[in-house]
Design the sequence.
């Protein structure tokens, strides 16, 4: 399992690194001094960067960094994308660098201001070519440029690399389809297929002549998803709970498992067994007017084949009322809600980590 996990992690990071190497944009200052005549690209960028070879956008703002981001946002909007303040792209770049897959120059090509604000996936093949400061108006201008030929080559390479990873992942899923690892491999393939579909869509805007020849490298993500769900249906998970008098917590876990696509069972011969125990504790306030019910749940899934305890999950909290039975009822309801909602996410996050 560790070898499979390591391979797919490296494969995904390799794709990220390839992106990093391909689009690390080099923002460079205009050679024109401040306050000189306005460059033609400020008003008509296509006159300097012909549309048959480039896609360009100009951004303006009170400071240089903001003008750069605005230019990038304008260019990204061509693809129906938007600039994001999410740090996910930055984390991916950092991880790629730590794994030795992206060079320091790739990483440092992103200024701190832009790296916090720009979704990296929107910027493959993009360069911020020039800046100009209009001193009289206190405004900075930047022009972001995408070289169609260069970007088409990068996207084509990414699609082919992803396809290779998809094929390997699907073979792994087929050979180990009755396990979480097989499901995880198929999930990885689905994610890579979604990326390829996105890249192909962008290519249709950059260079539509490339699209037809690359379709064979873009298997349907919907078909792979259906295949993944079929794998899940064939992996029963036995649910065993302790201190669960009415079986309500067991039902909550079964519901959460079902939400991910797997099926629960009472058959204790299943490879995977989810074991959960619950505890409740009463406490009274000093004035005796309020009584609290503290609740605690601890669970994990045991893989009988490997002996590993996986997907650790814990929930705790407290509810208050003037009557302990009512406080306990509220605690039970809160616990069931948290299991139903949060365990599905914890379970799926574990699967994705494979």
Sequence:
């Amino acid at each position: 399992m560790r070898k499979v996990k390591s391979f797919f992690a490296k494969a995904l990071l390799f794709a990220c690194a390839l992106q990093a190497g391909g689009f690390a944009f080099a923002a460079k200052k205009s050679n024109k001094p401040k306050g000189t005549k306005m460059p033609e690209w400020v008003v008509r960028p296509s006159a300097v960067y012909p549309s048959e070879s480039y896609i360009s956008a100009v951004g303006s703002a009170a400071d240089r960094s903001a003008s750069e981001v605005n230019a990038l946002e304008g260019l990204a909007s061509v693809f129906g994308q938007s600039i994001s303040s999410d740090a996910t792209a930055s984390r991916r770049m950092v991880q790629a660098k730590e794994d030795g897959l992206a060079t320091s120059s790739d990483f440092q090509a992103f200024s701190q201001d832009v790296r916090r604000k720009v979704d990296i996936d929107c910027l493959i093949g993009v360069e911020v070519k020039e800046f100009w400061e209009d001193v009289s108006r206190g405004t900075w201008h930047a022009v972001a440029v995408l070289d169609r030929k260069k970007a088409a080559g990068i996207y084509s390479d990414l699609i082919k690399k992803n396809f290779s990873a998809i094929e390997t992942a699907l073979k792994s899923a087929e050979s180990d389809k009755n396990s979480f690892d097989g499901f995880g491999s198929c999930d990885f393939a689905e994610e890579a297929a979604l990326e390829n579909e996105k890249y192909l869509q962008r290519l249709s805007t950059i260079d539509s002549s490339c699209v037809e020849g690359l379709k064979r490298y873009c298997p349907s993500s919907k078909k792979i998803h259906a295949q993944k769900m079929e794998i899940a249906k064939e992996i029963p998970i036995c649910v065993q709970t302790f201190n669960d008098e009415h079986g309500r917590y067991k039902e909550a876990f079964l519901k959460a498992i079902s939400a991910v696509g797997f099926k629960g069972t009472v058959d204790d011969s299943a490879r995977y067994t989810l074991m959960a125990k619950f505890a409740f504790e009463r406490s009274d306030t000093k004035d005796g007017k309020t009584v609290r019910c503290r609740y605690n749940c601890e669970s994990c899934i045991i893989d009988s084949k490997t002996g590993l305890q996986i997907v650790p999950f814990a929930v705790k909290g407290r509810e208050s009322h003037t009557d302990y039975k009512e406080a306990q009822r509220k605690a039970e309801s809160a616990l069931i809600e948290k299991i139903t909602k949060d365990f599905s996410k914890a379970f799926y996050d574990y699967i994705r980590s494979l």
About this structure: The mean pLDDT is 82. The CA atoms of residues 201 and 215 lie 11 Å apart. Residues 324-353 form the longest helix (30 residues). The longest strand covers residues 272-284.
